[in-house]
Design goal:
Outer Surface Protein A, domain 3, 3-stranded antiparallel beta sheet, 3 helices, elongated
Amino acid sequence: MSRIGKKPIAVPQGVTAKVEGQKVTVKGVKGELSLTLVDDVSVKLDDDGVHVAPINDSKRARSMWGMSRSMVQNLVGGVTNGFSKNLEINGVGYRAALKSPRELQLQLGYSHEIIHPIPEGITVVVPKPTEIVISGIEKDKVGQIAAEIRRYRGPEPYQGKGVKYAGEFIYRKEGKKK
């Protein structure tokens, strides 16, 4: 039994949820999101929230149960509070700036600057040249953009240079002794 899947998803005040077959639509103060769930789970709306249950006792249905519940929970969380990821840039001459509202300019020690496009629905703020704040209502898009930016120059263990998540611990190595 899925411990996560058993819990109903509470729909807060000011948020409306609608279930039509396998499609779940959630509308809130930050926007509207919808998701079509796989056929191995059933979804219904009650007074106490949205319930997700497996259709049968197969391994795939049980596997999709908790994941589907978490995805619907992310819809509700996105339209109420939104999601954000903070990135830190470490290194001499490493910096970020917004070139336009839809383009992020990164200088990460390469011979050229990197221009990363920002998709619709995602907001990127650069409070300092060494900090990037990515926010939006879709958790997977926010995480994907943060991972793509981090991939340009991930943190290295010797000098600690690169792009890392705020609060991420980077195991530092000592280096060779002479």
